[in-house]
Write a structure and sequence with these properties.
Protein name: SCO family protein
InterPro entries: SCO1/SenC, Thioredoxin-like_sf
Family: Belongs to the SCO1/2 family.
Organism: Geomobilimonas luticola
Strand content: 15-25%
CATH class of the largest domain: Alpha Beta
Structural class: alpha+beta
Radius of gyration: 25 Å
CATH topology of the largest domain: Glutaredoxin
Keywords: Membrane, Signal, Transmembrane, Transmembrane helix
CATH superfamily of the largest domain: Glutaredoxin
Helix content: 40-55%
Low-confidence stretches: 24-45, 228-240
Strand order of the largest sheet: 6-5-4-10-11
């Protein structure tokens, strides 16, 4: 009997020593995974501070709201209130449709990533491209909508991605609220390469930079934007396992936190098993 107990505790000590060694190496493993292995963003965000006075750039205004009372024109030329579209978590892309450079890459990058987002477009989230060139027409918006939806090579509802145009005042109010500053240069524009994710009440919850999107980043940002509409358990799990890296502008798996939790749970479960087994043998 004593020999069995001694053997059991010897195994326990060996197991605990192994766990301590693993814990010692966890910070090293976490440091090696600080850069998300799935990230591939072009970080051309032109991010600037709130008081730098730059004419072109982006000042993040997380937690602030965009004006949902603004009226734009949709692809058919019909007036549409922004608040009637932002009824679900929404990705907003400030672009101009005649751009042959980064705006095209931005929207095409999103079109490539959207089929990998396992949520229902139009019902659980929406995408809105908004032209900041007040001279562009709904006909031009409709042309590019057809082009990007066709490029997906996957079913995507018309209501899931809207393409808007508007007057100078509506454009100015929307971009100002988002901290997005651009400047016309001849027929083109100098502008940041960024999009934003807003909650159904118009609150800005995340900025996404560059022309490359990851379905993981989009999905997590949309979950954040759900506010209270997704179960708090899901949001807590997402927040526990993933951390948004403001420098890398992507969601990073928190290896150290998750690994430590697994180690603690395994240790507690093994010790409980040993204690219960020892008591059972003692009674026998």
């Amino acid at each position: 009997m004593g020999r069995q107990c001694g053997t059991g505790w010897h195994v326990a000590r060996t197991f605990l020593a192994s766990l301590l060694v693993l814990c010692a190496f966890l910070p090293v493993l976490a440091a090696a995974h600080t850069e998300d292995p799935f990230s591939g963003h072009d970080h051309a965000g032109m991010v600037s501070g709130p008081d730098d006075g730059a004419k072109v750039g982006l000042t993040e205004r997380l937690g602030e709201k965009i004006p949902l009372d603004l009226t734009f024109r949709d692809e058919t030329g019909k007036p549409v209130r922004l608040g009637d579209l932002v009824t679900v978590p929404t990705v907003i892309l400030p672009v101009y449709y005649s751009c042959t450079n980064v705006c095209n890459f931005l929207q095409q990058g999103l079109a490539s990533a959207l089929p990998g987002v396992k949520r229902k477009p139009g019902e659980e989230y929406r995408v809105i491209s908004v032209s900041f060139d007040e001279t562009e027409t709904p006909e031009l918006a409709a042309k590019y909508k057809r082009m990007y939806l066709t490029s997906m090579n996957a079913p995507f509802p018309e209501e899931g991605w809207r393409f808007l145009t508007g007057d100078a005042e509506s454009v100015r109010r929307l971009t100002a609220a988002a901290g997005y500053r651009f400047q016309r240069k001849g027929r083109d524009f100098i502008h940041p390469v960024a999009s934003m994710v807003v909650a159904p009440d118009g609150t800005i919850v995340r900025y996404l930079y560059g022309t490359t999107f990851l379905p993981k980043d989009l999905t997590l940002a949309l979950l954040e934007a759900r506010e209270g509409k997704v179960g708090t358990t899901i949001r807590k799990v997402v927040g526990y396992c993933f951390t948004f890296d403001p420098e890398g502008k992507t969601y990073v798996f928190n290896l150290l936190r998750v690994s430590a939790t697994v180690v603690i749970l395994c240790t507690g479960g093994f010790l409980a098993f040993l204690l219960l087994t020892g008591r059972k043998n003692g009674r026998q």
